[in-house]
Amino acid sequence: MGINVCEIFYSIQGESTFSGLPCVFVRLNGCNLNCRWCDTLYAKEDEGSVMQIEEILQQLERFECNLVEITGGEPLIQKDTPVLVDTLLNKGYQVLVETNGTISINTISDKCIRIVDIKCPSSGESKKNLFCNIDILGEQDEIKFVIADKTDYDFAKDIIINTNLKHINASRIHISPVYGSIKPEQLASWMLNDKIKARLSMQLHKIIWHPDKRGV
Ligand code: SF4
After folding, report:
1. Buried-most residue among 3, 106, 107, 206 (CB within 10 A)?
2. Tens digits of per-residue pLDDT, 146-165?
3. Using CA positions, which residue lies closest to atom 8 of ligand 1?
């Protein structure tokens, strides 16, 4: 029993509406997908360390930071992740959970902020999107499309315009370029031309530090 943890680190939040804020990241090990442009392969390939929730709490305390993101890999493949989320919420942390959108989010508390990917075609995993997650999302939750090319952008645009995302404010719908695959200027130009109701989100940590740097 326990949770398989890849790494715990303190950094600047690089994505989401919390971008720019100091945040502690709990990166869990393992993933159910194989995205072509995965930038955290080590979270799937490394062995990680099995930790009890109490040990994770002890590590978090030393950072003296109230904002915690649970990410991966894919955090929802681990059975005790909902318990970790509840424990952190009960301790007064503000909790973000980033998930790849292919597993139901109804196992985790709606008191955390759920940041749900919708996988686009370039990932090679778009057929696994669990669209019923969209109906579960609350006003505080967020959606992210990671875009590598025009096909991805058109896929995201179609979902934003033609599916029921009205309960998610545009500021919480993120369109984020795959680093090095598409120029942000190009993506910005498409968004402005289409007057799309979403936010262009850059991965701030890849601008601050080297894009391959781990633990930031
Ligand atoms: S879901 Fe995330 S961790 Fe899993 S393969 Fe895709 S990019 Fe990598």
Report:
1. 3
2. 999 999 999 999 999 988 78
3. 38
